[in-house]
Amino acid sequence: MKEKLTSIRQEALALIAQDGADLEQIKIKYLGKKGELTAVLRGMGALSAEERPVVGQLANEVRADIEAALGEKAQQLRASALEAQLKAEKLDVTMPGSSPAVGHLHPLTQVQRELEDIFIGMGFSIAEGPEVELDYYNFQALNIPENHPARDTQDTFYIAENVLLRSQTSPVQVRTMEHQKPPIRIISPGRVYRSDALDATHSPLFHQLEGLVVDKGITMGDLKGTLEIFAKKMFGESTRIRFRPHHFPFTEPSAEVDVSCYVCGGKGCRLCKGEGWIEILGAGMVHPFVLSNCGIDPEEYSGFAFGLGVERIAMKKYGIDDIRLFYENDERFLEQF
Ligand code: PHE
User: pLDDT grade, residue 113 (50/70/90)?
Assistant: First the structure.
């Protein structure tokens, strides 16, 4: 029996020492309920009283040795598994990192800020007004009563009968004059809406920048000088501007103002549709009706106003020939600015 126990120990320890030993299997094979060591212990009843304690002690030693070997081997396996994992996950802190993609301002925002900077440099400050506007401010106070034909060219989206999405930034003129006494020198950039079909030059949502100056003795000369300085700052010193007579209900006299084409310099090209000029804004002297509507005496004060399209300016500046590019958010387009 002693020999049997000794050979069990030898066999078990040899198995445990092997590479890739299945420790759980070995444990069951020798120490399990039906294991070899257990079988030997069961047979101890047949031993003599003297032999029993001796064999019992040896059996305990064998069990202890096998358990110790199993524990030690398990410990080794855990350690080498951890080492392998650490090796596999090794981090090279000297590798260059992947740089995060950093975005930038949308070209329309860039242009709007550039416009703001130019006018702020000329002493203007920024005024704001709501995009959801009352009919009164968008039309009536601007000398566009119900049934006026100007409402056709600025057809917009209605929230309720007298509440609409503003079709122009001009209502900010009225809101400003209502609560601010002259001298007034403001610009007001923002979104405007018209129920126009989307094509290369029209969008139901676009951006304008309104300008308003009211003081004693303001003349059309001030308007021309201001816009000429603006055009040269925006498009370069060689840029020319031209005034064409026009009609707006809220200015008198009124003009449409063109700048010489950035792409062709005036010869005529696709961007300026062969004209050599690009219309960028509407302007004029504030109509006396609008002044007195806002509680400003037209006998004492006069003013000029202008409204320009931010998209048009951006298209002119960058040679972009389709307004839709601004709103599609195609990164291949946006990345270029
Ligand atoms: N609001 C006019 C438009 O949208 C532009 C404009 C503004 C004209 C101010 C004259 C004065 O067409």
Answer: very high
Distance 304 CA to ligand 1 centre (A): 11
- pLDDT at residue 207, as a whole number: 97
Residues framing ligand 1 (Cβ under 6 A): 168, 170, 248, 251, 282-284, 305-307
Determine which helix (DSSP H) or strand (DSSP E) holds 160, and give its type and residue range.
strand 158-160
pTM for the predicted model, two decimal places? 0.71
CA 283 to ligand 1 center in whole angstroms: 6
The two beta strands, 205-215 and 184-193, are antiparallel
Distance 222 CA to ligand 1 centre (A): 17
pLDDT in tens, 34-48: 888 888 778 888 888
Tokens of residue 157, six digits: 């989206």
The CATH number of 107-334 is 3.30.930.10
pLDDT on residue 125: 98
Q: Which atom of ligand 1 is nearest to the CA of 308?
A: 5
Per domain, the residue ranges of the chain are 2-88, 107-334
Residue 118 makes CB contacts below 8 A (sequence gap 6+) with 230, 233, 234
Q: Atom 4 (ligand 1): residue with closest C-alpha?
A: 168
Mean pLDDT of 206-221: 98
Q: Which atom of ligand 1 is nearest to the CA of 283?
A: 10
Reading the block at residue 106, the tokens are 């949308």
310 torsion bin: left (phi>0), alpha (psi -120 to 50), beta (else): alpha
Name the least confident of 10-19, 96-105, 311-320: 10-19
